[in-house]
Amino acid sequence: QVQLVESGGGLVQAGGSLRLSCAASGRSFTGYRMGWFRQAPGKEREFVAAINWSTGSTYYSDSVKGRFTISRDNANNTVYLQMSSLKPEDTAIYYCAADREGYRTTYGLPTTYDYWGQGTQVTVSS
Questions:
Q1: pLDDT < 50 regions, the chain
Q2: Torsion sign, CA atoms 72, 24, 22, 101
Q3: Sign of the Cα pseudo-torsion (102, 103, 107, 109, in order)
Q4: Which of 35, 44, 92, 117 is the most exposed, fewest CB within 10 Å of its CB?
């Protein structure tokens, strides 16, 4: 049974940094694509970044490109989201997700992903 557990959220001032972690367990993730999404109150869940577990290829939304970096640690089955130059509009619950078929081009859609974590709150104060 696949489990995804996020951690690392918190309160930070604008311009600051945070690193989110997603501990993945339950099977080998070779061939998977791992994604980060976020959801602010009253808004739809939004794609942030994704990474192919096997190849390391990365994908970013325009709103975070150049500020956020997604990476993975194969040995520890963990995916990270390093967030820098944070803005108040980055405030949201951040979710880790796993797509069993990592070749799909629809990596920006929540419906593409098969497994989800419980989320971690990130709050950026101005």
A1: none
A2: positive
A3: negative
A4: 44
